Amino acid sequence: MEGLKASALGCVEANNPSDNDFTASDMDCTMSIEDECVDVRYTFWNNKGGTGKTSLAFQAITRYAEKHPSKRVLAIDICPQANLSELFLGGLNNKGSDKLLGRHGLVPRCSLGGYFQLRLPSPYTPPSFDAHDFVTKPSIYNSGIPGNIDLVCGDPLLELQANAVNTLANQNIPGTNAWIAVIDWLKTFLDQVEAEYDTVFMDCNPSFSLYTQIALATTDQIILPVMADDSSRRAIQNAFSLIYGLKLPSEIYASYAFATKLKEAGRALPKVHLIAKNRITQYMGSASAYRAVLYAIQSDIVMLLKTNPEIFSFKTADAGFVEIRDFQTTGVVAFAKGLPFSKLQAGKQAINGHRVQVKQDYLTNSINSMELLVSHL
Fold first, then answer.
1. C-beta atoms surrounding 253 within 10 Å
2. Domains of the chain
3. pTM of the complete model
4. pLDDT tens-digit series, residues 148-203
5. Contact (CB, 8 A) for 304 and 240
């Protein structure tokens, strides 16, 4: 059990705050590990910013962990903005950003950027490393987070590393598929700890940069958040082109496509598992322009289910969509405090020196929305 405890803590011990010792409640998630693989790997992604992707990811991951206390969950923040990590570590009110900087200050740097930094000198052959050096136990820093969640923190270094990673992936080396070797960086990391987790969640940057591709190549199922606007419809169409090579503007692009390279390496493509119509408000009536856009998005999916059913994990469009009500003030307060909706109280709250009101009916709507999303996982 001692070895397992150290494994669960990962690199937390190197910078463990003295007033947040590893407690019995944290031990709930450190059951005896069997020789088994991760059940499923989900990724939240869309080729557009502002769709509420990270907000949904945080609430979905925490609610999933609450509903499945026996499951061991790993969250990986694959975004240089690292907003998901800041939420897990306490949010604005509880100095989540400062705690994240503390993780970045460790040696080795306790983040995805720290792991990638280790890989830069050895891009095609994995070096000797301990994946636990890059894992954080967020419940030690934020008591609102379930104890069965571990976190690989995001890092602004990812943006700095992007050019180097691209260059390494596009080298012509006899006998070596440089692209797949780099694409497999995260797979190599997860292979080392796969017996320790049941479910992995990843939150990706909206860009289709190589670090996003590294995540998607390791993904089983994608959760695509969309908004009720034309840019979201274009973004979801772009997402299908980028991941699956559908409707490319020219055959010239086919040989360079993500799907082509992954298939040539004998790898399976991720499937779209869920499309979340996010930030639905009470003003989006059945005849509204907003509803018209959402209907158009759903119609696009209906057509793709007929022509390319293999890219979805669901059989009908109705089974693949969920509607998420706008979190409004409830979301602002929850994210400022780094709290799952289940831990948030209705009533007046102090946020960054300002008093705001969380209405019970809004909080209930937010909780119900996440229950619906998580029921599909």
1. 12
2. 37-374 (3.40.50.300)
3. 0.87
4. 999 999 999 999 999 999 999 999 999 999 999 999 999 999 999 999 999 999 99
5. yes
